[in-house]
Amino acid sequence: MKVKSAVLERMGAAPPYGQSRPLVVQELELDPPGPGEVLVRVAAAGLCHSDLSVINGDRPRPTPMALGHEAAGIVEELGPGVDDLARGDHVVMVFVPSCGHCVACAEGRPALCEPGAAANGAGTLLSGARRLHRSGGDVHHHLGVSAFAEYATVSRRSLVRIDPELPLDEAALFGCAVLTGVGAVVNTGRVPAGASVAVIGLGGVGLCSLLAAIAAGAREVVAIDLADDKLAFARQLGAGATFSARDPDCIEQVREATGGGVEFAIEMAGSVRALELAYGITRRGGTTITAGLPPPSGTMALSPVSLVAEERTLKGSYIGTCVPVRDIPRYIQLYRSGRLPVDRLLSERIRLEEINEGFDRLHEGKAIRQIVLF
Questions:
Q1: Is CATH 3.40.50.11930 the classification given to domain 2-175+341-373?
Q2: How far apart are alpha carbons 58 and 293 in whole angstroms?
Q3: pLDDT at 136
C-alpha cells in the first residue's frame, strides 16, 4: 500500500529545520505484515529528542530512514502467527522489540533485548525485514516503528494493547516519554516514599520523571533546567524548588538547599555537563540515574574514590528499565486516576507537513511534547 511518511535522507542538517528541511514528507510503498508482524494505522506520534538526535547526527542511524518511535494507533491487519490481537485493537508502540528468548529477555529485562537492539541499529524490524520501499531501494525503519507515517508495519513484539477509551493522542506519550521518565523513578531508582529527588532536564521525559517522583511520595522534588519557562512549569506541576543550570554555582546552591544533596538525581538532558551536575548534587550514599543519551563521543571524568568512600551509585536507565506489557497499563491507570497528569505535557498538536518546524521548536526548547495527528 502507499503511505505518506516523513523520511530523513541524511543526518547532520543545520537548524533551523524549517529552512533546511531534513525530513521530507513523501509517498512510500509499505508491505503487508509478514509472520509475527502487524499493520497499524497510526493515530498520533510524538516528537522526541531521540528523533532529533538522529536528525542532527548525535545518534547515528542508517539512512534514508522513516523516523518516529513514540506512537499509538489501531490494528488494521495481522500477519501469520499473530493470534493475540484483533483488528480494531488500540495499541501503543514500543521502540525496542523484545524477542522473549535472549538472555536479557529471560531475565525479565526486555529493554535490553539483544536481537531487538541489533535490529534497531540496522534499521530493520525484529525479523530483519524492511517493509518500507521507494523507487531506488529500501527505506530503513526507526527503532522498529517509523511512526511519522499514516500506517506502519511493525513486529508484534513492538506493541502493547491498551484500553480503547484512552484518547490516542494521549496514549502516544506512553510509548516513550512516560515509559522512560516514570520508569527511571519507579523501576531503575525504586524511589521510596519520603526520598529527595532532583530531575535535570525538563523536556517531556524529564517532566514525566518529576510527576513520577511526586506520585511516589518524594518529600522533596527539585527541578533543574536551562530554561526559565520550563522551571516555572515544573513549579506548576509540583516541584518544590527549582534551579537554573545556567548558574555556575548551581551545584553548591542545590547542595546547600537540600542539606548536602539529594538521594536520587535523575539526568534527562542528554549532555555530559548535565550528568556531571547530577552527580555533583547527589548526596553521600545516594544514586545518580542517567537516561539522557548524550552523543556517543561524550566522556565524563569521575573519581572512583567518591563511589567507594561515599557509597555512591551511578546507574543507566534505558526505557525506564520497563517491562512494557506490564508497565504501560499500570501507568495508564495512574494517569486515569489523576495521579500522573501527563496530558499537561502536550504542548502542540501538529500536521505531518509541519514536522520540520516542530523539530525547530524542540531544538530551541520551546515545546514540551508535540504530537503529530493523522
A1: no
A2: 9
A3: 78
Q: Domain extents for the chain?
A: 2-175+341-373, 180-318
CA 199/CA 221 separation, integer angstroms: 8
Alpha carbon distance, N-terminus to C-terminus of the chain: 17
Q: What share of the chain is helix, strand, coil (3-state, %, to 5)?
A: 35, 25, 40
Is the predicted pLDDT of residue 132 greater than 90, yes or no?
Answer: yes
pLDDT for 43 beyond 90: yes
Domain 180-318, what architecture? 3-Layer(aba) Sandwich (3.40)
pLDDT at 295 over 90: no
Alpha-carbon distance 264 to 285, whole Å? 10
Average pLDDT of the segment spanning 159-168: 97
Nearest alpha carbon to residue 188 among 268, 93, 120: 268
Using a CB cutoff of 8 Å and minimum separation of 24, what contacts does 235-239 make?
A: 237/207, 237/210, 237/211, 237/341, 237/344, 238/210, 238/211, 238/214, 239/210
- Could you tell me the pLDDT band of residue 296, with boundaries at 50, 70 and 90? confident
pLDDT band at 345 (very low <50, low <70, confident <90, very high): very high
Strand spans (E) along 96-188: 132-134, 137-141, 151-155, 159-161
Element (H, E) at 227: none
Give the whole-number percent of the chain exceeding pLDDT 70. Answer: 100
DSSP 250-283: HHHHHHHHTTS-EEEEEE-S-SHHHHHHHHHTEE
Helices (H), 223-354: 228-237, 250-257, 272-280, 304-309, 324-336
Task: Answer yes or no: is pLDDT of 47 > 90.
Answer: yes
Query: What values do phi and psi take at 130, rounded to 5?
Result: -115, 120
Strand duo 282-290 + 313-316: pairing: parallel
Q: Work out the average pLDDT over 78-90.
A: 98
Is the separation of the CB atoms in 212 and 265 below 8 Å? no
| E strand spans, the chain | 2-8, 23-30, 37-46, 65-66, 70-78, 90-93, 132-134, 137-141, 151-155, 159-161, 196-200, 220-225, 241-244, 262-267, 282-290, 313-316, 346-350, 369-373
Tell me the residue length of the chain.
374
pLDDT tens for each residue of 167-176: 999 999 999 9
